[in-house]
Structure formats: structure tokens, C-alpha cells
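Input (structure):
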């Protein structure tokens, strides 16, 4: 499954997602990248924000459409785009660390040569000059800005895979739900750290500690319901106490002997010697171990019945 995300470039906060549903109808999909960017960025139209994309989404039409909606665009280009002049394409005749700029209708095109025979082509509606950074071996400002803001979605994907709740399943809705839980965990951690910047500031694994505490707080209401419902196994009560939940005095606690009897599997007294059939359940009348074959309604063995 593929999910397209738009994220904040600094905090990697997931803003909006769109599931890829495959080809709709019999017609081949056209301009998928542009449609995805326009849909995900729609809530931020006319806010003067910038959108950074990679070359999968890039097109000249996308830059024009976003500018009409009050947004700027910085993106890399594939070399096969028909609107790229020949002077911008890779060539062994171009000098290393050189850059070529092109300007048209508030759209800037730049081609930078990081090494011999190679060229990185970028398009921007945010930059409108030939600014380069001499300390970075003549890299254009467009290239530096792209490198600074390009890692939002990749970083979100990396954070999600660091601590995953996903389990093996053949049901795609369940797998999709697991992914939503993981993304929600990243989003809640970003909000929490922004509101509490001093929280465990000396810990290197703050996110793991946050997920542990958040998970405990989410399951505490369920633990309280189970503990207060009635007879509970002693190990369950100990686990509940670790989460700070104590059982009411009215809840009966099984004795150690009762727990041992129920925990061990014993051979059924009604099965023959050739059958080594063991069971945890006992007859409610004679308290002897009995298997499912030799028990009847209300867990009473055949002899007692």
C-alpha cells in the first residue's frame, strides 16, 4: 500500500495523507503527481507557504498552478522534461561546481554540476536571482534550500519504522490501521515535545519513553474495568499494580493452590492409558481433570453426570 503524505519540513509533523487507490476506471492515470500535490496542499492555499517535492511530482504545470493558489514550489527535475533547454542538461564540457540559471515569468530554473558529467536541475518559484554560496563550493541557494527542506516525508517514514505496532496480517484494513497508529504516535510526540521542551531533555530515547507512557495511559481505563469486573488471575492483578491500578477489596483473589491447579495440565482420569490426553479444566463436581471429550454441559464429567 502507498500513502502520500504532506509534512512539516522542520518537525516532520504529518499534516495530511492520501491513500493511493490504483487506476480508477479503464483510462490510464495521467498527471498523478500533480493531482496528489494539489489535493494535499489545498488546505494551505493563499498562505504564502512553500512546497518542496522530488522529481516524481515535478512539472511546469504544477509550479504555475501552485503559484496561482498563493504557494511557491521548489523541486528537482528529471532530465527528460521537454521544457529544459539543452544548455541545462549534463555534459562533460561543463565545469565542476558551475551553475546555469534561467528566468521566465517568475519561475527560476538552475542546473548545477556537482561532479564531472553530472547535473542537478531544480525549479523554483520562490527564488528569483543567481545567488550562490561560495562556502559550499558555489552551490545555488535553490539547491541549499531544497536540501534543507526535502527530508520531511522520508524522516516521517524513518520515525514510523523505528517503533512500529504493525503485526502480520492478511487483512489490508488492519494493516492500514496499524500504520495510522504509528503515524499518530509520531504526531503526538511532536506536539508533546513542542509544548514541553524540557521533558526528559537528557534522554536519547525520549520517543520510546513517550510511547510507553502514552500506551499505558490509553490502556489504564481497560485495566480498571477488568480489575473491577470480578474474579481476576493473580498475575493480572500484579500487572495492573505495575500500571498503578489496585483492585477493590471486594474483588476475590485466587489462592496460590488454586492458581497452580488451574495452571498445570493433568491427564484426563476418564481417558484410557494409551491416550496421553492432558487438560487444564476440571470437573466442577469431583474436581478431577477431564478433557473435552469426557465433559458435558457446565463442565461436569460423564461419571458425575
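Output (sequence):
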Amino acid at each position: 500500500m502507498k500513502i502520500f503524505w504532506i509534512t512539516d519540513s522542520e518537525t516532520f509533523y504529518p499534516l495530511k495523507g492520501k491513500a493511493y487507490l490504483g487506476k480508477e476506471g479503464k483510462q490510464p492515470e495521467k498527471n498523478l503527481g500533480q493531482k496528489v500535490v494539489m489535493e494535499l496542499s489545498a488546505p494551505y492555499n493563499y498562505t504564502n507557504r512553500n512546497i518542496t517535492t522530488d522529481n516524481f511530482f515535478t512539472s511546469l504545470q504544477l509550479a504555475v498552478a501552485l503559484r496561482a493558489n498563493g504557494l511557491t514550489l521548489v523541486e528537482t527535475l528529471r532530465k527528460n522534461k521537454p521544457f529544459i533547454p539543452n544548455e541545462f542538461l549534463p555534459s562533460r564540457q561543463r565545469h565542476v561546481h558551475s551553475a546555469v540559471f534561467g528566468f521566465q515569468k517568475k519561475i527560476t530554473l538552475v542546473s548545477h554540476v556537482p561532479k564531472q558529467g553530472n547535473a542537478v536541475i531544480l525549479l523554483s518559484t520562490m527564488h528569483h536571482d543567481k545567488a550562490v554560496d561560495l562556502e559550499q563550493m558555489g552551490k545555488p541557494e535553490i539547491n541549499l534550500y531544497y536540501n534543507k527542506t526535502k527530508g520531511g516525508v522520508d524522516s516521517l517514514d524513518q520515525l514510523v519504522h523505528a517503533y512500529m505496532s504493525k503485526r502480520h496480517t492478511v487483512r489490508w484494513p488492519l494493516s492500514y490501521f496499524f500504520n495510522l497508529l504509528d503515524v499518530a504516535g509520531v504526531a503526538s510526540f511532536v506536539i508533546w515535545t513542542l509544548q514541553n521542551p524540557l521533558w526528559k531533555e537528557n534522554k536519547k530515547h525520549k520517543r520510546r519513553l513517550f510511547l510507553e507512557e502514552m500506551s499505558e495511559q490509553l490502556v489504564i481505563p481497560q485495566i480498571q474495568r477488568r480489575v473491577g469486573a470480578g474474579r481476576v488471575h493473580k498475575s493480572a492483578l500484579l500487572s495492573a499494580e505495575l500500571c498503578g491500578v489496585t483492585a477493590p477489596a471486594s474483588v476475590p483473589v485466587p489462592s496460590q493452590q488454586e492458581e497452580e491447579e488451574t495452571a498445570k495440565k493433568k491427564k484426563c482420569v476418564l481417558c484410557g492409558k494409551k491416550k496421553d490426553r492432558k487438560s487444564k479444566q476440571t470437573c466442577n463436581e469431583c474436581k478431577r481433570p477431564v478433557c473435552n471429550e469426557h465433559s458435558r454441559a457446565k463442565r461436569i464429567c460423564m461419571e458425575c453426570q
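Notes: The chain has eight helices and eleven strands. The two ends are 56 Å apart (CA to CA).
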